[in-house]
Specification:
The complex is a heterodimer of chains A (about 550) and B (about 290).
Chain A (H helix, E strand, L loop, with lengths): L3 E10 L3 H14 L3 E7 L6 E11 L10 E6 L2 H7 L3 E10 L8 E3 L1 H6 L8 H12 L4 H11 L4 H14 L19 E3 H11 L4 E4 L6 H9 L1 H4 L2 E3 L4 H13 L4 E6 H17 L3 E7 L17 H5 L8 E3 L4 H18 L2 E7 H5 L1 E3 L45 E3 L13 H22 L5 E5 L5 E5 L4 H11 L2 E5 L1 E3 L3 H8 L4 E6 L5 H8 L6 E4 L8 H11 L2
Parallel strand pairs in A: 1-4, 4-5, 5-6, 8-9, 8-10, 10-11, 11-13, 12-13, 17-18, 17-20, 20-21
Antiparallel strand pairs in A: 1-3, 2-3, 2-14, 7-14, 12-19, 16-18
Helix pairs in contact in A: 1-4, 1-5, 4-5, 4-6, 5-6, 7-8, 7-13, 10-11
Chain B lengths: L21 H17 L8 E5 L7 H4 L3 E4 L6 H10 L4 E7 H7 L1 H10 L3 E7 L34 H8 L3 E6 L3 H13 L3 E7 L9 H4 L3 E3 L10 H8 L12 E8 L5 H6 L13 H6 L2
Parallel strand pairs in B: 1-2, 1-3, 3-4, 4-6, 5-6, 7-8
Antiparallel strand pairs in B: 5-8
Helix pairs in contact in B: 1-7, 4-5
Classes of the chains: A alpha/beta (about 550), B alpha/beta (about 290).
Amino acid sequence: MAQEYSVLIGGQAGDGIRLAGSSVARLFNRLGYWVFAYNDYQSLIRGGHNFTVVRASGKRVQAHRNTVDIMVAFNQETVEKHGWRLKEDSLVIFDSDNVKAEGLGLPLSETARKRNLPLIVRNTAALGALASTLGLEFHLVEEVVRSTVRRSVEENIAVAKEGYDMAKGYRGFTQVHAVNNPPRPILSGNEAIGLGAVKAGLKLYVAYPMTPSTPLLHYLAGNADELGVTVVQPENEIAVIGMAEGAAYAGVRTMVGTSGGGFCLMVEHLSLAGQAEIPVVIMLGERPGPAIGLPTYHAQGELFFPIFAGHGEFPRIVVSPGDPEEAFYLSAEALNLAWRFQVPVILVADYSLLESSFSSFLDEDKVLVENPKLWTGGGEYKRYLLTGDGVSPLAFPGTVGVTVKANSYEHDEYGITTEDPVLTMRNAEKRLAKSRTIEDELRKRETVKTYGNMQADTVLVTWGSTKGAVVEVAEEHDFGVLQPLYLNPLPVWEIEKHFSGKKNIVCVEANSTGQLARWIRFHGFRVDRTILKYDGRALTVDELEEKIREAGV
Amino acid sequence: MGLRLEDFSTYARNTWCPGCGNFGIERAAKLAFAELVNEGKIRRENIVMVTGIGCHGKIADYINVNSFYSLHGRAIAPAVGIKLANPMLEVLAFVGDGDALGEGLEHTVFAAKRNVDMTVIVHDNRVYALTTGQFTPTSPKGFRGGSTPRGAPEEPLNPIELMLVSGATLVARAYSVNLNHTKELVKQAVLHKGFAFIDVLQPCYTFFDTYKYYGPRVYDLQKEGHNYADLDAALAKAREWNYGGEEAKRIPIGVFFKTDKPTYEDIVLAGRSLREGVVPSISRVLQRSM
């Protein structure tokens, strides 16, 4: 079994827990480990309880465990809430200035206070102490601090060194050895989605802040110049998608991002994109609903919603990445397909994918801007020209001799409103033809992923970031795993192939009704049972092990 | 020979009621477009009309220029997106009063607040006509319609006043019967660099016939020496008529306010073009993530 370590860092909101977790992940990354960092935070700004679990392993890991090897506690609540995660040989590093616990108590707050630095600087002291207990050389800590801290860098390094030296009694308590891998970028799903879209020609990102999509808004805005993208925050989600559709009509590749509540507001415009044939990509970040639900937590409750949202019948594509690498390629593919077929594409992503950090390798040369069907001149331009494949050539306003009429009403080929029954039927058939064209194209692409032993009798079926725990557990049990990357159209041709002869088909997902299982059954396949998790937290490896044991899978 | 009004017509059959005030707006818009193109001030292919849903929206079918026939209340947000995508375009949102002051009020206020370089033309008939006669945000209190047989319980909204306090940089009112005056205002609005708003009083012959009401009351602000550079004077003139009923004596039309401010797209784009096709490398961003 590969060497692996789990570290939990806990404190209050405002303590910089996420950043501290990121530094720990970077530390292991420099040693060649694959890392996964799960962030648990509440819907508040100060106080409360936040924690991050960083899991590092010699093999790829994309989920966390319940147990931890080291706990770093900045407040008492961390010790009280997470004591159950400690094993016999686990170590607690705590800020002895305000925490009582057994283990390695260090005056972490004091390191910042005596230098008149903000309290948050104690995180750097903790990082130094942690590195010491892991038996690491200090230069690794220094590198990480330089790569993450922007202000008072030298002072932070001094604080880190102090933490490192203070912990010398525990030096090498949990000795970590470097593994022979190069460091990899550590990305969240949000970041990967932004980067993928940029590589497929994204020029305008429009969003209204809403967890868990807000980090995408911040990431693209913060890197706007380097990524060549313009970021706009309008008055609400209706304006968000309205603006995006206007920009797309005028020829600009555009994406919007939101969560379930914001997507609710966008739905009328989704239908407009279907009728007027406007390419737009919607990143739908899932969190537990209904309504406001648990704003900063995890769920996969929105499988049916993007597939069925919107009045009327129109083609749409729904994609579902399970890790940042898939998010990168699928986000690019979403934008390309939206433009090739002039349809809305919804990229649905759960909280843990969007807000956790994963070691990732992205090959930007693998992504191309695929050309849409453009009008090449000659004759009169018809925005909605009837074609065999249901896709009409695009032209944009500003083109000499061309009038581009987009229309939300049923319309003729020029885009003039009609109520004619023959045209009405023809347009419906145009949309059906487009659906067939899309499916033909998807049959040529990777629409599902498989892992583990696909010859086994048991196959676990999952979607989104739940695959992290599922793949790991399946590999241990010698099960197969099927993960659809496309939810609509559902790649039935792949499911048919992979389900053939299976004795035990189990859907694992983070909702209470088994939406993926129902969707697969809707298409005429058998699903034998479901393993569901709906407490707002992402499935851990240990939990899935237990659920599989209980279910007798 | 220059373009004529007929050159902007389409083959679509017009379905507005005989006597509808929309005809005046359609005519004024076509004439304004023809003259602006003929004068070399704009290019025909750069004109984009965005419309909402209601009787007004049909204008998208009747004028042969680029158009985006949107949803009810949702003309202005796509219009802003179009302008960001291509600032060379002359973007005009033709909207209804229920459409842009009711269903989609927030977009109207925010486009004004941002000073997007675009024109909003409200076909303000003060009634939901296509849905057969209900009160709208600008209907007078007491308006009797299908949903308010005892009269509308609400005071009307004054869109001129609202736009003045929202940051619009050109605020005007027209009366659809005064074709030449309306056309000139449309031309001025198109040429204005910033957010231009024209509330066009437009009688609905079928559900709210206001021809006799407006006729004797409207007067041209510009003929009475109104100083449109003065916001306070503009607000005072805006309050001269609060979209009420018989008690009102005079209704000012013309330009209430005009000023210059940086436009939204100039600030947001900062010289960038969204239509250039260069795809950047992400290798440095990835490097920083390690």
